[in-house]
Specification:
heterodimer; A: alpha/beta; six-stranded mixed β-sheet; B: mainly alpha; ABC transporter involved in vitamin B12 uptake, BtuC; 13 helices; 76% helix; globular
Chain lengths: 493, 331
């Protein structure tokens, strides 16, 4: 007789307002397995895991942990039952130290010396070391994510739910994280990995489950699946399959003396975003009209500061920066930097208006014109929204990002800077953003883009530049994916 | 509002007062006659509205100016000083000079917090609050020193020159400051609703980081200008109170207008025209409180119960509205 499932969800139904998020979903997690949960944005993946973690109360259905049907009214109850969760968004208190955040999550005493040791020991035990005294706000995105996982594993957890933990990580970091999860499952723990990344699911997971529109449409062993079979299950039969053709690196369509140079950096030095130290060292880079230059980098290697310096959002310390205007800038974090969630879509489009925009007349805003313009943009960029007057907070992540992209590209910028523009988006939304960036380049803009997913940068860019420890390196023509990966880690030394 | 009055009535009855008499007195004192309406309610509403507009301006930009009381006193000091020295000038010029001095003094008083914020990142909540005590001490210093009346007996200044006083509505104590308040409200409404600058102010308050990243908004500058404007209005209120009502500077010139105005602005949800309405409402409550104390023996502070209940109800309504939005978002 086999052991009972570590976690079994049966016939889960859940609605929010008029939206039926889950329509009778079944999910089984066996002991010791790493189980990938796939699906597009809005398929119900997060909601299903929130039911298991006590964050959402199901309308119908049962939750069983270790074979016993239980009620999970709150995350506290879930943790008592041995269920831990790493959320899609960071849940750390930025003003507190790493150790204090762990204590907060685990319910430990905060007596400093003992806590420091305890947190250090915990980091070593789970294989994700962290400096206990660092304020959480100072951590890079990758390290913040690490803190989230350490927090989830701080108490005695045997079921770990991970909501898109690799969305913000570079390949090296993502592999590191999956390795840690593997160690956890090898010791008898069970883990659910919510992800958009098909390769990751195929490579890391034992089994996969695919959700579509609140129902399980596919389930099987990872070894029996292919990219194509999973993509078809996610988007439904007959839908477009993701396309990735092979590409040789160093292939530069934008070259030739007749094509104007729109971005020219010479020996540029840029300070860290946090204000301490140098992030970019003597960067020299030229981008011509029509080019899409992709930055491949592990989180925290200066790419963020480089992009912001090009976009004019961060001042360089030294060196030359010649960038044609106007510049469109798509920041990484759409809810704090791209948009103001409490403001309407129209107001968010007006945000960043210049005096020569059609809805500005001598310092006055003509809201009627701005609203009409926003409505047209929503249509053109296929944003699913009730109208231009709803707050940006009411939109899903993919649609929020489309609004940011629409605002930045509508002005027909000559230079486009995009920072991880598809973070956390599903296949369809990602494809739409890619198409927009390609169209901008085809229309004569110079595009500079960084994606945390290496395959995505390779796919999107016409030319690749590696950023490692603040230095820019152009990989040799015909470099392989493995060679690029090595450059990212070693910096060519 | 109704709930607030009901709580007040219930509380009065329980405490052994005659609630109907007390509420009747409250009504009589606030709006029972033309004189009560103009000379009690509106006279008290004028400083509340003007300061409330300034608070709305600052809060909209996310700058929490808690120092309107101090800026009001700074304005009043400057108005008294100028008002004592402009005798013999034409009335229009004298009054204008008084009000301009008050505006400049209010701005100067908030300049210190602005500088501390830009230079050292000191939170304006703390610096503006602390400067209130400095301003109150300064008033007390003034009325016992340089600005004390000629006899050197009472801790107050002489009355300002007649030419420096604001014109009154005949038969009442209501002065031209009401017009200034209404004009300021209309102007601020226009700025908020129609101008790019007003929108940027709102954007900074709603999401400073996104405003900064948009690349077109100097967040620090917007915050500084909003604070200065806020101080200017609070200073103006001090000047108006001095040249329209008291004519002389003394301690406790303001019964806490600078603090009540925060409630006025928040209750109006920082909307300038709403500030006019809530300012008059709070003016009426305070005017009625005096009458209630005289005619029914109920302590005037009981009215603060009504003010507090009104604020709590509005905050609760807003919180539940926010929760409804949040629920939609999660879906």
């Amino acid at each position: 007789m086999t052991a009972p499932p570590a976690l079994a969800l049966r016939g889960i139904r859940k609605h929010f307002g008029s939206v039926q998020a889950l329509r009778g979903a079944d999910f089984t997690l066996m002991p010791g397995e790493l189980h990938a949960l796939l699906g597009e944005n809005g398929a119900g993946k997060t909601t299903l895991m929130h039911v298991a973690y006590g964050l959402a109360r199901p309308d119908a259905g049962t939750v069983a942990i270790g074979g016993a049907v239980v009620s999970v009214p709150s995350p506290r109850a879930a943790r008592r039952l041995g269920v831990g969760m790493v959320h899609q968004h960071f849940t750390s208190v930025l003003a507190l130290s790493v150790a204090e955040n762990v204590a907060l999550a685990a319910g430990w005493s905060v007596y400093p010396a003992a806590l420091r040791e305890r947190v250090r020991a915990l980091g070593d035990r789970v294989g994700l070391p962290l400096e206990p005294n660092t304020p959480a706000g100072r951590l890079s995105v990758g390290l913040k994510q690490r803190l989230e996982i350490v927090k989830a594993l701080a108490t005695d957890v045997h079921v770990l739910l991970l909501d898109e933990p690799t969305a913000v990580l570079a390949p090296g970091e993502a592999e590191e994280l999956l390795r840690v999860v593997r160690v956890f499952t090898a010791k008898g723990g069970s883990a659910v990995l919510i992800t958009h990344k098909l390769d990751e699911a195929l490579a890391a997971a034992d089994r996969v489950t695919v959700l579509r529109q609140g129902m399980v449409v596919h389930e099987g062993l990872a070894t029996a699946e292919t990219r194509e079979s999973l993509a078809a299950a996610m988007v439904g039969e007959g839908a477009e399959k993701p396309v990735r053709e092979g590409k040789t690196l160093g292939d530069e369509p934008g070259q030739g003396a007749s094509v104007p140079v729109l971005v020219r950096l010479e020996e540029l030095e840029v300070p860290r975003d946090t204000g301490y130290g140098i992030a970019v060292r003597r960067a020299t880079l030229t981008i011509r009209a029509g080019e899409i230059v992709g930055i491949a980098a592990v989180e925290g290697n200066g790419q963020r500061e480089l992009l912001r310096a090009v976009a004019g959002r961060l001042h360089a310390l030294r060196g030359r920066r010649e960038v044609a205007g106007p510049v469109g800038f798509i920041p990484e974090d759409r809810t704090t930097e791209g948009l103001i969630p409490a403001l309407s879509l129209t107001e968010n489009v007006v945000l960043g208006s210049r005096a020569d925009d059609p809805w500005i007349r001598r310092g006055r805003v003509d809201w009627r014109v701005a609203r009409a313009r926003t409505a047209a943009l929503l249509k053109e960029y296929e944003v699913v929204a009730p109208g231009p007057d709803v707050p940006a907070a009411a939109l899903s992540g993919g649609n929020q990002q489309r609004v940011v992209v629409a605002r930045e590209l509508a002005r027909q910028p000559r230079v486009v800077v995009a920072e991880n523009p598809t973070r956390g988006l599903d296949l369809r939304a990602t494809a739409a953003i890619h198409a927009r960036l390609r169209a901008a380049a085809a229309g004569g803009a110079a595009v500079l883009v960084y994606c945390s997913d290496l395959d995505e940068v390779l796919d999107l860019s016409t030319r690749l530049v590696v950023a490692a420890r603040g230095t820019l390196i152009e990989p040799p023509p015909g470099a392989t994916r493995a060679q690029v990966g090595e450059l990212m880690v070693t910096g060519g030394r | 509002m109704l709930l607030g009055l009901l709580v007040l009535a219930g509380g009065l009855q329980l405490a052994g007062y005659d609630a109907p008499t007390a509420l009747g007195a409250l009504w009589q004192g606030a709006a029972g006659s033309w004189y009560a309406l103009t000379s009690a309610t509106l006279v008290r509403a004028v400083p509340l509205v003007i300061i409330g507009l300034g608070i709305a301006l600052a809060f909209r930009a996310g700058a929490l100016n808690i120092g309107a009381e101090g800026q009001f006193y700074a304005g009043a000091i400057a108005a008294a000083w100028v008002g004592l020295h402009v005798g013999g000038r034409p009335a229009g010029i004298a009054a204008t000079a008084v009000l301009l001095a008050a505006i400049l003094a209010g701005m100067a008083w908030v300049l210190v917090p602005v500088w501390l914020k830009l230079r050292f990142g000191v939170l304006e909540v703390i610096s503006t609050l602390l400067l209130n005590f400095v301003a109150e001490s300064l008033v007390s210093l003034m009325v016992q020193g340089p600005l004390q009346e000629a006899q050197h007996i009472y801790p107050q200044s002489d009355s300002i020159a007649a030419a420096a006083r604001l014109p009154l509505l005949p038969g009442t104590r209501l002065h031209a400051g009401l017009l200034l308040a209404l004009v300021a409200a209309a102007a601020l409404w226009y700025v908020f609703a129609r101008t790019l600058w007003g929108f940027r102010l709102h954007a900074v308050g709603a999401g400073a980081r996104a405003a900064e990243i948009s690349g077109r908004i100097d967040v620090r500058r917007v915050g500084a200008v909003a604070l200065l404007g806020s101080g200017a209005l609070a200073g103006l209120a001090g000047g108006v109170e001095l040249s329209g009502v008291s004519y002389a500077l003394f301690q406790n010139l303001s019964p806490g207008y600078g603090f009540t105005a925060i409630a006025v602005a928040l209750l109006a949800r920082l909307h300038p025209l709403g500030v006019v309405a809530t300012g008059i409402l709070f003016g009426a409550l305070e005017a009625g409180a005096g009458a209630m104390q005289r005619d029914a023996g109920v302590p005037a502070v009981a009215v603060y119960v009504v003010e507090a209940v009104v604020i709590v109800v509005v905050l609760l309504a807003e919180a539940s509205a926010r929760r409804a939005t949040a629920a939609r978002v999660t879906a």
